[in-house]
Inverse folding.
């Protein structure tokens, strides 16, 4: 597609996630002016959110100040802003801090939880896509145990100690494993008066295997790991509703629970103004070509979770994960450089580096392009890779110290209700 | 005063701060049943709150799960509860989770910010007594800088970058020093577009010297340190009001500021039901004898900040600080043991271990009973003592790693707005 070459252009990037940050790195030394917008002042390492929820890590150790990333990029500006709308005809972005003009726009706004239109599930379930959400879940889990101690109603106590996780992708599997370890390692010590056998962890999956993006081998092994940890895995079970008390499914399986965690779907975090032929309505993702360029507007690009690169080989785009986002950010950076140099753009080529998930202590599954393995070694690989992709030396150190400590002591000391979720205190209590 | 000796008594402790926890340790192996109540599920190391506010530390590293402290105390129960009222005539505590009977009651509810009845200051100023408050202040400081970038109104920008700290006790002094270091080390790198000279840190003190609980030598040196860091120290200046925009004082000094931090007073966090002759109305502290026992009720004790041990030598009680709280908790523990053994109680004797405050990198003042010193060595002593008093090996490790990192890199990477204070997002965004 034709695209105008502009010298020293103003590029606006929406979103400082994996895609936006990886693009920023490439553009840092180019003859372009960049404005990076994000509604948070930090980059968030989503793959470790479940450890924040389960008291294994501090939120601050998986977040990194965006301004710190950009400190040495003299051609960058960061603005803490919520983007309200894009006005592509006039090359403008409308935000809660005002209007911004752009020459090229890059949408890297990521993804959000997809409730598939079920407002009852949306209202009553917990999600884990952001740090505040992860902290809310941490508070709720701990508040549930505290409440379970107080009630003499056995049914209520059961519901408080019953956890239902919907969706057995990496997030659901990792969370289920961590909760099972809390049940085994923390509950008996912290709550000697509670019958910990009541604590049930249920992982519910509509398909016929867990971790369906991974190999059959990984799925099987992960399921065996979960069962060894005492997690109830429900396959071929589709959750139909949750009213805050009862989870109903398409089978006769029913759960009475105070806590349903919805990890069963994501959708693009598209922004108002991009619509029609540019959008997949089902998944809310922006359709782009192999240069991450929109159909309708040649100076607008989308990368990462929000972008769906539609080619014959990838009719539904690439998986909404960190790797495609990082690679697309990098590739778009190179293409914008080429554009400025008057060279033709090069199509995005995804390099599948594999996938992995951890189930718990000494238990992980890893699918590399050439090797598949599971168990202790996989677990070390999982930890090494996650430490490596964390941004910042301090964060790596802190996460490492926590992991070593948690491993040696079978402990999770960040089991802190800093801001209660259920019981409302004043904002500063 | 007479007190009934009860075998295997039920002791209720209100508060898991320094006093409550130090008492708990002594009672852990006694023939008593203890219920510890706190509205938080963690013990909070208040002396380091200012580092949470200024992005130097994670909140989770200065908090410690109370249940973890009590794990090995088989005679203890913890309940997460807000105490609403004490009914001393019927030996009952009324909480938001129900009624509790006690044989002996220990009030260790600590202290809260004292606004001396000025509701305008209470509404508009920030405080730093709890972790959520410290996090609110962290968010506000960072939001101010983000906003300052956006406004073209110079007066508004000045107000956003002007910080007024009222009260030059250790909290005020340490916060002022940390803000000055942010101005010097972080602002120019993170906000190259802002004229950092606009950032003013004002420390306002009604008396004629700062750190008035410490030696003259410490006061002088701390003031010199602050001035070197560029903090404006205003002595003999009493703040009279703050409407959210302008701080007025008893002199002609006036500050236009978006951020006033009130560290000028604390009062006892007394609980409804303890009143009259048992209470100092001015400071809201509970009057106790040298056995930490109330005048009116011989089976109720108060320890720590909320307790005022009235003797001839201490007409206003001991300072509201960690050391008297820890020592009173310990002493009351021994006295309760003696009581159960039929021995007479022993009066509390305060062992003054000195006081210290840090102003910033390589700068602290220490008053020990026999030595007074300031500077680099004092700074190392300050760090060592604070690490030592932190509860938990993990917390000490994490704080230590952060300190080493921050020292070497002149950095504070927890400058994260996890939950905005000004701009209201949804609770989970």
């Amino acid at each position: 597609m034709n695209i105008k070459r502009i010298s020293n252009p103003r590029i606006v990037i929406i979103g400082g996630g994996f895609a936006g940050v990886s693009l920023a790195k490439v553009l840092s030394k180019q003859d372009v002016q960049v404005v990076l917008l994000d509604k948070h002042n930090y980059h968030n390492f989503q793959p470790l959110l479940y450890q924040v929820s389960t008291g294994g890590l501090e939120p601050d150790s998986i977040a990194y100040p965006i301004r710190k990333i950009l400190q040495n990029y003299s051609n960058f500006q960061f603005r803490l802003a919520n983007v309200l709308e894009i006005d592509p005809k006039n090359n403008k972005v409308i935000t809660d801090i005002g209007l911004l003009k752009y020459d090229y726009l890059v949408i890297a706004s990521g993804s959000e939880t997809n409730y598939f239109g079920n407002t009852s599930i949306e209202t009553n379930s917990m999600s884990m896509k952001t740090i505040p959400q992860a902290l809310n879940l941490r508070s709720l889990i701990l508040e549930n145990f505290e409440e379970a101690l107080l009630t003499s109603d056995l049914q209520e106590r059961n519901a408080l100690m019953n956890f239902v996780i919907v969706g057995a992708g990496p997030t659901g599997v990792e969370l289920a494993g961590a909760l099972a370890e809390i049940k085994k390692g923390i509950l008996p010590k912290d709550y000697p008066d509670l019958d910990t056998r009541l604590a049930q962890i249920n992982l519910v999956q509509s398909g016929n295997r867990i971790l369906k993006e991974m190999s059959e081998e990984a799925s099987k092994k992960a399921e065996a790991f979960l069962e060894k940890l005492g997690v109830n895995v429900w396959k071929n079970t589709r959750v139909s509703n949750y009213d805050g008390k009862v989870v109903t499914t398409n089978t006769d399986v029913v759960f009475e629970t105070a806590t349903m965690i919805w990890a069963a779907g994501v959708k693009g975090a598209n922004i108002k103004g991009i619509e029609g032929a540019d959008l997949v309505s089902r998944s809310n993702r922006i359709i782009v070509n192999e240069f991450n360029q929109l159909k309708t507007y040649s100076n607008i690009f989308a990368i990462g979770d929000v972008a769906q690169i539609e080619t014959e080989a990838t009719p539904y785009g690439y998986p909404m994960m960190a790797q495609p986002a990082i690679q697309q950010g990098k590739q778009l950076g190179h293409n914008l450089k080429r554009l400025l140099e008057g060279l033709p753009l090069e199509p995005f080529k995804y390099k599948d580096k594999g996938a992995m998930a951890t189930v718990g202590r000494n238990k992980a599954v890893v699918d590399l392009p050439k090797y598949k393995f599971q168990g202790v070694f996989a677990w070390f690989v999982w930890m090494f890779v996650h430490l490596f992709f964390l941004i910042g030396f301090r964060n790596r150190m802190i996460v490492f110290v926590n992991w070593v400590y948690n491993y040696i002591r079978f402990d999770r000391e960040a089991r802190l209700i800093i801001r209660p979720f259920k019981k409302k205190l004043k904002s500063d209590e």
In short: The mean pLDDT of chain A is 96. The two ends of chain A are 56 Å apart (CA to CA). The domain at 119-264 of chain A is CATH 3.50.50.100 (FAD/NAD(P)-binding domain).
